[in-house]
Design brief:
single chain; 282 residues; alpha/beta; TIM Barrel; 8-stranded parallel β-sheet; 8 strands; binds zinc ion
Length: 282
């Protein structure tokens, strides 16, 4: 299995990070993707990813941290991805020695509303353009003001993603086939269909183990569009609710999807692992 979204860089893991990784490996987790939230945290997740064979990194500025997004942030993210612009004979640039596999997490957050919507949207568009330039998929976060399944946040996000994905398609970018993932998807069925029609994957997290509307949606979606993730240390799945989440618990999410789809857990593990390999090109 792949934990496609885990904040393993947080201090909550400082005392036992190695043990957490061991438990993950024992549970059958092969790789873990750690997203950045700011330029500073992006640098540290890249460093962490380089320190362990299981770990990979995404770099970017999260919508609730957009106050840290300065005029030179985009250029610094680019430099982090390509420290030595030295394309291989195939023309492909290996980002961060192959450890930087996505731009994220980026997106829109109208729940905490820490920055005006136009400011959030500008940072999102610029980072999407950087992703297109670097041919890296994106990890997207979105959250409505009301925490409802649908609303202005999903609408604004999908409008921006449709424009971006259409540009990728017109430019015949290979990224059009694997543009990114909507992480910890909590949106409506309509948003899910729109995202899937643009080739985005949807990340499934702990709430699928206890929230009925999430279960109904995931049961109706093809396995080929799904990723599993923990979003550790948040969103612990049942029966671990209330505890610190960790990558080993991604197995509980695979089990729940298996129950919902009435298939064996191994099939969920294999398919979502293949989905992640396609998305992150590893
Ligand atoms: Zn996250």
């Amino acid at each position: 299995m792949i934990d496609t979204h885990c904040h393993l860089d947080y201090h909550k893991f400082d005392s036992d990070r190695e043990a957490v990784l061991e438990r993950a490996a024992q549970a059958g987790v092969e790789r873990i993707l750690i997203p950045g939230l700011t330029l500073t945290s992006s640098r540290s997740v890249v460093e962490l990813a380089r320190s362990h064979p299981m770990l990979y990194a995404a770099i970017g500025v999260h919508p609730t941290d957009v106050d840290t997004y300065q005029v030179d942030t985009l250029e610094r993210l680019r430099q982090l991805a390509i420290p030595h612009p030295n394309p291989s004979p195939t023309g492909r640039v290996t980002q961060g020695e192959g450890k930087i596999v996505a731009i994220g997490e980026i997106g829109l957050d109208y729940y905490w509303d820490t920055a005006p919507h136009d400011v959030q949207q500008k940072a999102l568009r610029e980072q999407l353009d950087l992703a297109a330039e670097l041919q890296l998929p994106v990890i997207l976060h979105f959250r409505e003001k009301s925490d409802a399944a649908d609303g202005p946040c999903a609408r604004d996000l999908m409008k921006i993603l449709e424009e971006w994905a259409n540009r990728l398609q017109r430019g015949k970018s290979p990224l059009a086939e694997r543009p990114g993932a909507l992480h910890s998807f909590s949106g409506s069925r309509e948003t899910a269909s729109r995202a899937i029609s643009l080739n985005f994957y949807l990340g499934v997290t702990g709430p699928v183990t206890y929230r009925k509307e999430r279960q109904e949606l995931i049961a109706s979606l093809p396995l080929e569009c799904l990723l599993i993730e923990t979003d550790s240390p948040y969103l612990s799945p049942a029966p671990q609710r209330g505890k610190r989440n960790e990558p080993a618990f991604v197995a509980l999410i695979a089990d729940k999807i298996a129950t919902l789809h009435q298939i064996p857990s191994t099939q969920v593990a294999e398919t979502t692992t293949a989905n992640a390999a396609r998305l992150f090109d590893w």
